[in-house]
Amino acid sequence: MQTTNIGDATLFLADAFDILPTLGEVDHCITDPPYGEQTQKNARTLSDPDSGVTEHYIDFKMDESAVRRAFDLTGRITRRWVVASMEFRHAALFEKEPPENLRFVRVGCWVKANGAPQFTGDRPAQGWEAIAILHRAGEKLRWNGGGLRAVWEMAVERNNGHPTPKPVGLMLDWIRLFTDNGETVLDPFMGSGTTGVACARLGCKFIGIEIRTDYFELACRRIEAAHAQRDLFSPNGEAHKTLRR
Question: The whole model's pTM is what?
Answer without folding.
Answer: 0.85
